[in-house]
Design a protein that fits this description.
The protein is an alpha+beta fold. It contains seven helices and twelve strands. The strands form three sheets. Strands 2, 3, 4, 5, 7, 8 and 9 form a seven-stranded mixed beta sheet that branches.
Length: about 270
């Protein structure tokens, strides 16, 4: 019997359940988090998912992010909704994911051995200096290590172009010799160089869009926004943030720019 392939609506419902679970965890342990990126844009413009998008991202101040890493160790090993991270060796990424263990998500170009379930991404929010050159330099450094990390776990012989696929045959063996935990720790060390309490600005350095992530520290003051019929925390300066990232964010992009993630998701077969 084959695993059941899930529809976009089924995927979104599972992701919403993961977000509700995260909200429950954060309330229990008094952790701060904020909807961010396309998830926040969806909340403001559509009061839920962007119709052609199917993921959920949140930002968590570094202090709270590291507390969540400690919470990971307390969870039940057989939990359906499970926190995973590079720290525990069950994720290849330098941030936290909350996954549904009853599902299998197959990403295009990612080697199948690193497949996980449906997830929501939890990124750290760090301090940023009032110096555009330093910020740009840090993003370049992060992009370098991020490229090495993603190349190490990509699928051999496949790529968006023939020369990308060919290059992987040379690069993957080289990148795989580098230690995943060390790469992830390096990315986090670069990102958290400026503590929030000593910085005039904040932003998502790790896995962020770029220098436009820089925001005044009032980001840390939460307001509630509606997302799929539920209320979740968002940054007080959400208009500034979304304008920085997307420009006129209330304007729908042309249809050829409405891109969803390239993956397939399946519900695991019930063996009982």
């Amino acid at each position: 019997m084959k695993n059941k392939k899930l529809s976009s609506e089924e995927i979104k419902q599972i992701e919403l359940n993961l977000l509700l679970k995260l909200d429950e965890i954060c309330k229990k342990y008094k952790l701060r988090y904020y909807l961010c990126g396309g998830t926040l844009l969806g909340a403001v413009r559509h009061k839920g998912f962007i119709p052609w998008d199917d993921d959920i991202d949140v930002l968590m101040p570094r202090e709270d992010f590291e507390k969540l890493l400690r919470v990971e160790k307390k969870q039940k090993q057989d939990a359906v909704e499970k926190i995973v991270s590079w720290k525990s060796g069950n994720s290849i990424y330098p941030f936290i994911k909350l996954i549904n263990t009853n599902t299998v998500l197959k990403e295009k170009y990612l080697s199948e051995e690193f497949t996980t379930g449906i997830w929501i991404d939890i990124f750290p929010l760090d301090g940023m200096p009032d110096d555009e050159k330093i910020i740009a330099k840090k993003f370049k450094k992060i992009k370098f290590y991020k490229t090495i990390l993603l190349t190490a776990y990509s699928e051999m012989g496949k790529g968006a172009t023939w020369y990308a696929a060919l290059a992987k045959r040379v690069l993957i063996p080289i990148c795989k010799h580098l230690n995943t935990e060390k790469l992830c720790n390096k990315l986090n060390a670069i990102s958290k160089e400026y503590p929030i309490d000593k910085s005039p600005y904040v932003g998502g350095f790790l896995w962020g869009y770029g220098p436009q992530e820089k925001m005044p520290k009032e980001f840390l003051e939460p307001v509630e926004v509606e997302f799929e019929g539920h209320m979740f925390p968002a940054p007080k300066c959400w208009d500034f943030y979304l304008t920085q990232l997307y420009g006129d964010y209330m304007q729908l992009p042309p249809e050829n720019k409405r891109i969803s993630h390239d993956f397939n998701v399946y519900m695991k077969e019930n063996k009982e």
